[in-house]
Amino acid sequence: MNIPRVTIGLTCFNAEDTIGRAIASALAQDWLNKEVIVVDDFSTDRSVATIKSAISVDRRARLVRHQRNTGAAGARNTLLAEADGEFIIFFDDDDESLPIRVSTQLKTLMDFELQSGKSLVVCYAGGIRRYPNGYIKKLPAIGSCGVEIPNGSGLADYLLFYRKRAGWFYGSGVPTCALMARMSTFEAVDGFDYEMKRLEDADFAIRVALKGGYFVGTTESLFVQYATDSADKSPEINLEAEQRLVKKNKAYLNAIGRYYYALHWPKLRYWHFKRLYSRFLLELLGLIFFNPTAVFAHLLETGPRRLLHEMRMHQKDNR
What is the pLDDT of residue 318? Predict the structure, then answer.
């Protein structure tokens, strides 16, 4: 029986305190035909020493070092270039995966391929996010339930301007830390865009979607994500990335009459985070003028949930 080879890929940048745990969870996967590749993206702390120590116990693991920092997309493209697995799965440098993650995602992906006859398929794992104050947020996988598997331009619409389709389950979106796909799927869309310093995961998923791809997910929770703050997660950097993503897809969005909406909704979120409510109101009025129905539906869907999440995320643990 041919057992598919799986490449477990980890990218690392200044993660000396967490990368050892992430590598240990990769080496502990119960799938035997695997390799583990760690790409260090020019860390300036002791990450490299930690990686070398962690992988020394298993000859199936190796380190690739960048001589300059390329960002997450560049590091992931290096992983794709170095991998010899038929399937690629990504682990983050500060996450921890259960030993059954590889085998469970592989079964989910291959079962869907067999049942549907589709070849362009990506699979996401469910997980949880743990905050420093003890708050835990569930991260259900996209496509893990619902009457139809998210696919094609409908999934691109959701990622670009939050248009939802009845019967589709969008879960926690399309984070690369939860992603598995065939190498041929990555090759079909030319990997990741190194110019995307944030949201390279959404950009990858949009390109797969616009080629007709399908998005399945595990019903099981298979990883723990430890929430952290860093300079590359600032509202300014997020806004720049969100607008870059929209501009990349300008032709498609203009064709369906949603370019203005997709470009300006991130600004609405930005003014909220900055607590500049006069600018928020002006942005909101502009959006309502062009797309009133979409705006009210979007606000009703996401507003209360977002406020509740922020309250739980920042509350102090009084126990």
Answer: 46
